[in-house]
Amino acid sequence: MWRVLLASSLSYVKIAVIGLVASGYNPFPLLGMPTPGFYEWAVSNKIYACLMSWFLTGMVENQLMSTGAFEIYYNDLPVWSKLKNGRLPEFQEVLSTISQQHKKVF
User: Fold this and answer.
1) pLDDT digits over 41-91, tens only?
2) Closest CA to 84 of 101, 103, 68
3) pLDDT (tens digit per residue) in 3-26
């Protein structure tokens, strides 16, 4: 559950940072802090900084939300589960399992 909360929070932070950089607003004087060099760079290179922020935080969010699940269903019946079997299926395994289930249904 903590991973979902962290990924969701990171998404909001990402949008806020991109908004600040794109607008050119400098929040650091309000916080009584000097403006960091990376923020000055980001404001002067807005497109690159916003794209970099979007993709890097997206990768982290994706990693936080990843469960490792890979499941195949045929006619609402499970054909393969990576979580159950611990590996990805071979193509022939999928085809043979589907044909077996197809024979059971019809």
Assistant:
1) 999 999 999 999 999 999 999 999 988 888 998 888 888 899 888 898 999
2) 68
3) 889 999 999 999 999 999 999 999
The 3-class SS string of 31-90 reads: HCCCCCHHHHHHHHCHHHHHHHHHHHHHHHHHHHHCCCCCEEEECCEEEEEHHHHCCCCC
> What's the angle, vertex CA 97, arms to CA 91 and CA 101, rounded to 5?
145
For 38, the token pair is 């990376």
Closest-CA residue to 30 (of 43, 20, 42, 22): 20
